[in-house]
């Protein structure tokens, strides 16, 4: 277990270790005003982690500290109940009390203020989450998005020290989800507490989170800023969890530590990577590139983007998926396939079609060598 | 029409329901929420009165509570009264026989409450007791209502166990079912018919009211998660 030395400036610290019933090891912190996304596949331990922070589950070992208040410490035998932790919790299915109206649901979270002020405060919170004119409705009479807003209002009305969101957008339709993203992003700027959001959707983490931790099978695989994790996954497991599909074999053909460049050989093709980990010449490695590191644009007009990595490819298939096209292309001299999502208008502009032999460019700063 | 027997039956049903339902709420909640070793055995034991013939239950209760038994001797020593052929003995028998009718619907009702809801309530700062009173009880009302109706009606119509344990003492153990049987034995079909009709009308009315109330409560409190 890590040392007991904790930095009190950051707001929530969590160090957890457990073997059963679900194995889970996690160690992270989340500052006030920061949104931390806990990302990973189903059954990986995300919700268990959130429940432990809430005090609804008890970890075997570890410490959870919020500000200067110790919530859990197995060595000191400290175990605060959910009621004592003063948290805002929005469960996956919102956990609204079905026999209480929207207003009463929000009031039920307001036991920390005098009774006479509760109604006005609850109405104010319903307004703040953009739920106008529906305080007398029962949850069954509200839409998914409206229910989510009531749950959020109830959680925030407590003026919690931490806000916990468990898959907050999974139970609503896509259109509502898009609207709720905007609202959460707006609320985020107003909140000065740590917000921990569990999600299995990488896009949500990229859109809303300042920081993310990736959890799989109870292990914390990587933590960092979402775009940083996406462009620099630690290993192949992380890369695959992040949904990266372009992972290839290569041989290290040269290194320039001063210029911070590693040269990779793939068939006859040489690819430059703006990273120089300690690797021996001739060593076999795996490397990855995210979708945004692959460029098609303006190749046809002879203005290939400024990059030294140019690869000849042949388009094998194109699948239109809404506003984007999923392109599968095979490298000319190596038996490797690139998968790329590009906007439909760009595919049209570049006259991309199945069987077309063309060139792509790889941004060297996005070519990332994975730890073996 | 034997009004005394009807009154006795109503009294027995009410006392049974008043004692049994609160117990069933806690037992049902415990069984719905807790996982423990031997849980299926406990659940099976609760269901036993449903499958055993009433005369068999009556026999065991007669032996178990009679003046020769430890319990019977103990009660007689402290209260001076016998449990068998006595109203209090009938109450004990009715409670035991009706445990499955009370526990089952309430346990099922608790099981329909998604975990999210008590979790969210705890995170709202509500104490265990407040969650139970303000959140869980209103949500399991249809289950409680069903348990009350089932137990009340079942006690009202109980025959075998009552006859075995209580006999046929007017004003003490002669319930309306025994009175109907007595009337038939005495070829007083008019009285038997009237009493049977009263029970029939009661049963149909109560079931209709319960169904309608359950539907209304169920609709009003429909869980949006389902």
UniProtKB/TrEMBL annotation, chain A:
Residues 3-242 form the ABC transporter domain. Keywords: ATP-binding, Cell membrane, Ion transport, Iron, Iron transport, Membrane, Nucleotide-binding, Transport. It holds the Pfam family ABC_tran. PROSITE patterns: ABC_TRANSPORTER_1, ABC_TRANSPORTER_2. Coiled coil: none annotated. GO terms for molecular function: ATP binding. InterPro entries: AAA+_ATPase (IPR003593), ABC_SmlMolc_Importer (IPR050093), ABC_transporter-like_ATP-bd (IPR003439), ABC_transporter-like_CS (IPR017871), ABC_transpr_FbpC (IPR015853), Mo/tungstate-bd_C_term_dom (IPR008995), P-loop_NTPase (IPR027417). This is ABC transporter ATP-binding protein. It comes from Shewanella electrodiphila.
TrEMBL record, chain B:
It comes from the Bacteria. InterPro entries: MetI-like, MetI-like_sf, ModB_ABC. It is found in: Cell inner membrane; Cell membrane. Keywords: Cell inner membrane, Cell membrane, Membrane, Molybdenum, Transmembrane, Transmembrane helix, Transport. Residues 6-210 form the ABC transmembrane type-1 domain. The chain crosses the membrane at residues 12-32, 44-63, 83-103, 139-157, 191-210. Its main location: membrane. It is a multi-pass membrane protein. Part of the binding-protein-dependent transport system for molybdenum; probably responsible for the translocation of the substrate across the membrane. Belongs to the binding-protein-dependent transport system permease family. CysTW subfamily. This is Molybdenum transport system permease. It comes from Shewanella electrodiphila.
